[in-house]
């Protein structure tokens, strides 16, 4: 079991499975919402329980995706593809050891010009 929380603790997430390898998204939406690139892990929705969901505000980022954040502290917690059985949870929200490592970078064609990706991981342009 893994737990994650927002900065103020109003939202808590429990994940009842091992975490797969996360990715780092460099798209303009993730950069603007997080302030940099955003690392998250994709999980089956059935393995994720959200407590304090009334404190989550959902932003409809496109026809296909909504983004969830704590309405109290603003922590960006979720990337939720609509009509799918998965949800992405922010790696930075997890409490304690995650026992996983970043696997790849996505949307690197949109990355900021102020940093380089030098970790040797796979870089997908989109």
TrEMBL record:
GO molecular function: carbon-sulfur lyase activity; metal ion binding
Keywords from the named record: Lyase, Metal-binding, Zinc
Pfam families noted in UniProt: GFA
Superkingdom as given in the UniProt entry: Bacteria
Ranges in coiled-coil conformation: none
PROSITE patterns according to UniProt: CENP_V_GFA
The keyword Cell membrane appears for this protein: no
CENP-V/GFA domain residues: 2-116
Record's keyword annotation contains Metal-binding: yes
Membership in a protein family: Belongs to the Gfa family.
Matches recorded under PANTHER family: CENP-V_GFA DOMAIN-CONTAINING PROTEIN-RELATED, GFA DOMAIN-CONTAINING PROTEIN
Protein name: Uncharacterized conserved protein
Organism per entry: Cognatiyoonia sediminum
């Amino acid at each position: 079991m893994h737990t994650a929380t927002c900065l103020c603790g109003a939202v808590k997430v429990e994940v009842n499975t091992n975490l797969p390898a996360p990715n780092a998204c460099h798209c303009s939406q993730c950069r603007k919402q997080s302030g940099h690139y955003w690392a998250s892990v994709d999980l089956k929705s059935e393995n994720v329980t959200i407590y304090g969901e009334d404190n989550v505000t959902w932003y409809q980022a496109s026809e296909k995706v909504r983004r969830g954040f704590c309405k109290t502290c603003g922590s960006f917690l979720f990337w939720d593809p609509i009509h799918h059985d998965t949800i992405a949870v922010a790696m930075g929200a997890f409490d304690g050891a995650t026992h996983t490592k970043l696997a790849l970078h996505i949307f690197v064609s949109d990355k900021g010009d102020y940093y380089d990706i030098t970790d040797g991981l796979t870089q997908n342009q989109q």
